[in-house]
Amino acid sequence: MADISKEQVKHVAHLARLAVTDEEVEQLTEELGAIIHYAEQLNELDTDNVEPTTHVLDIKNVMRKDEPREWITQEEALKNAPDKKDGQFRVPSILE
Asked: In which residue ranges is the amino acid composition biased (Basic and acidic residues) (predicted)?
């Protein structure tokens, strides 16, 4: 992969709506170039016999199974409400 150019940095900064100075463009060009060169080292690895994985760790879902169950009725939910109207909780207005 080719080195990143100052024009590319300026273009990406423009797309991200970032105002960058010429000094920052220079610094970002060097830093992003170093990151790209570091990532290119992965291309040197032999991955021919490596099976693809979705996650590097053996993770299992620890959440309970989603099963339907009995729940309280609307009347039970509203029986202790300080103010209710038409089957709903009534709260003070916060908008003027």
From this structure: 74-88
